[in-house]
Write a structure and sequence with these properties.
By secondary structure, this protein is α+β, with helices and mostly antiparallel strands. It has 4 domains: 149 residues, Beta Polymerase, domain 2; 80 residues, Orthogonal Bundle (cca-adding enzyme, domain 2), CATH 1.10.3090; 113 residues, no CATH class; 48 residues, no CATH class. Strands 3-4-5-2-1-8-9 form a 7-stranded mixed beta sheet. The chain has a two-stranded antiparallel sheet with strand order 6-7. A hairpin with a 2-residue loop joins strand 4 and strand 5. It is elongated, with a radius of gyration of 29 Å. The model has no long low-confidence stretch (mean pLDDT 94).
Length: 408
């Protein structure tokens, strides 16, 4: 326990949330804040999710909330979780529990009234603390000392914690990057190295979710090196990876986007990575386009850049410049910055001719329209996208007179 009241910051910075929390405590006086909320309040970070635990069973929690006029949703009854919603703000409330059986991915749980037993099933000491309505922190495993020291330790036996849920391997590196010091806990690393193969048993969606957070978190290069050294990164990206290239991208000052950073990190087939990790369609397309051609380069004139912008999304072009800068320069460079500023300031060229212009001449069949349109558009692109509607019509008439070139 500690004399420090983490609720002071909540009352000061989030008075509405603090008021809702007080109302919940009026209904469930034995409930406590748990997990990340306690951790982040103690170290002065912003809190996004407010999770509570209680010794009361889920049905009793729901009954008490409904009796008090609070909407409650049974979001995870099998794991003892319900969500109270106050003025649109969700508060997850979970019954104290212990693991009866685990298989490395899922757990069968039973309810308990023992706060320490519930804390013992959590992953890291900094996540195993709880805070009651009086602002007293209950810390059974030295989480406050570890938080102050920048030390990420598993609760109890590291191998056992990993065997219960292999995702904790990736979570370790994410939390190490955000809350830990430069050197990770040696016991944790030893356990992770020994059990790194368990990552292959995880769903790829969970793997990508954690990798995405690592890629946009702090100390990315250092974290990935630690994952490589412990044999973890090879299981996450068996297609191959190049940490050095990602480090150069970061040195260039590129945006903190997970897909852009993944494009730099992967040394193998990015489409295969996207397929295996089951990336969304949007992320898959972004990843592939970032590694595609053409690539804008410093010194190119508008007559070269305009056709690129006509055929490709601005974001794709900008991201390609970041990857090429990482390969060619590997550091901040005013010429590349100027190139991106030019691209960002250019209007996307719009081809001024349409199929109806060709059909209006009465000189082209439906099957020919597409060929004529493509041929005129290619001419328009080759001339820097500067020709207006009248010039394109004149070119169209010339193509119709001479006959469109055969498609190749």
């Amino acid at each position: 326990m500690t004399g420090t009241d983490p609720l002071d910051g909540l009352r000061r910075d989030m008075p509405d949330i603090s008021g809702h929390l007080a109302r919940i405590w009026g209904i469930l006086p034995d409930a406590r804040l748990v997990g990340g909320a306690v951790r982040d309040l103690l170290c002065g970070r912003g809190v996004s999710d407010i999770d509570l635990a209680t010794p009361h069973a889920p049905d009793e929690v729901m009954a008490r909330m409904k009796q008090a006029g609070i909407r409650v949703v049974p979001t995870g009854l099998s794991h003892g979780t319900v969500t109270a919603v106050l003025d649109g703000h969700p508060f997850e409330i979970t019954t104290l529990r212990r693991d009866e059986e685990t298989d490395g991915r899922h757990a069968t749980v039973a309810w308990t009234h023992d706060w320490r037993e519930d804390a013992a099933r959590r992953d890291f000491t900094i996540n195993a603390m709880s805070c009651d309505s009086a602002g007293v922190v209950h810390d059974y495993f030295g989480g406050q000392a570890d938080l102050a020291a920048g030390r990420i330790r598993f609760v109890g036996n590291a191998r056992q914690r990993i065997a219960e849920d292999a995702l904790r391997i990736l979570r370790f590196f994410r939390f190490q990057a955000r809350y830990g010091g430069a050197a990770p806990d040696p016991d944790a690393i030893a356990a992770i190295t020994a059990l790194s193969g368990m990552i292959d048993r995880l769903s790829v969606e969970r793997v990508w979710s954690e990798l995405r957070r690592i890629l946009v978190g702090p100390h990315v290069t250092r974290t990935l090196v630690q994952m490589h050294d412990s044999g973890v990164l090879g299981h996450v990206l068996p297609e191959g990876y190049d940490i050095g290239r990602l480090a150069r991208l970061l040195s260039c000052g590129a945006p903190a986007d997970a897909v852009l950073r993944l494009a730099a990190l992967v040394s193998g087939d990015v489409r295969e990575v996207a397929r295996r990790l089951k990336l969304s369609r949007a992320d898959t397309m972004a990843l592939a386009q970032t590694r595609a051609d053409p690539v804008p380069l410093p010194g190119m004139g508008d007559d070269v850049l305009a056709p690129m912008l006509a055929d490709h999304a601005l974001r794709d072009l900008l991201w390609r410049t970041w990857l090429r800068q990482a390969d060619r320069a590997g550091h901040r460079d005013a010429a590349w910055d100027a190139l991106r500023a030019r691209l960002d300031g250019m209007e996307k060229p719009v081809f001024p001719l349409a199929g109806r212009d060709i059909m209006a001449t009465g000189r082209a069949s439906g099957a020919m329209v597409g060929r004529v349109l493509a041929q005129v558009r290619q001419w328009w692109l080759e001339n820097g996208c500067t020709a207006g509607h009248a010039d394109c019509v004149a070119r169209m008439n010339a193509v119709l007179r001479d006959g469109p070139a055969d498609a190749t």
